[in-house]
Design a protein that fits this description.
The chain is of the alpha/beta class and about 160 residues long. The chain is built from four helices and six strands; from the N terminus they run αβαββααβββ. The protein has a domain of about 110 residues. About 20% of the residues lie in helices and about 20% in strands.
Length: about 160
């Protein structure tokens, strides 16, 4: 939250932290800022941007160390999909969704049709799993940043030539 505040000094920021201890610490660190809220549940929105950084995953180091081939028992695709749906439901049209450090591709989610990848942003790294919770081999490209909307929003998926 504090890093975001430095980049966006006047934005209203809402952080969701399910861990009570981490939530208390975050609230203490941001208490002086009236434009930051730290809550335990995802608010209804709509939000201009939603950042899911290392939250749509389980035991990432184990996935690598044990070369897990089937993630279904630990974290099935349906749970990931439910999470992405909940985030997209709270995202304003034209808003940005950033999903970083995830086990699944947003492109495989049931709401992928309302999202357009922003092509200039770095891709996710693996290991990644498919809709059946099995490890991709080889891993297809997986975007991390998306914009919500119809085709009129696709124009922002590449950097402007005026940049």
């Amino acid at each position: 939250m504090l890093s975001l505040r430095r980049m966006m000094p006047t934005a209203r920021l809402t952080g969701v932290e399910i861990n009570p201890r981490a939530r208390r610490i975050a609230r203490r660190l941001t208490a002086a800022d009236p434009l930051i809220d730290v809550v335990s549940r995802l608010p209804s929105g709509p939000f201009d941007a939603v950042l899911a950084l290392a939250v749509l995953q389980r035991e990432p180091m184990r996935m690598i160390a044990e070369q897990v081939a089937d993630l279904g028992r630990l974290y099935p695709f349906a749970r990931f999909d439910d999470g992405v749906v909940a985030l997209v439901d709270r995202l304003a049209c034209g808003g940005f969704l950033l999903v970083f450090h995830a086990h699944y591709r947003v492109e495989d989610s049931s709401v992928a049709d309302v999202l357009r990848p922003v092509g200039w942003f770095p891709l996710l790294d693996g290991p990644l799993f498919d809709r059946d919770s099995r490890r991709y081999d080889p891993t297809p490209p997986a975007a991390a940043l998306f914009v919500k909307g119809d085709d009129k929003w696709a124009a922002i998926s590449a950097p402007s030539s005026n940049s």
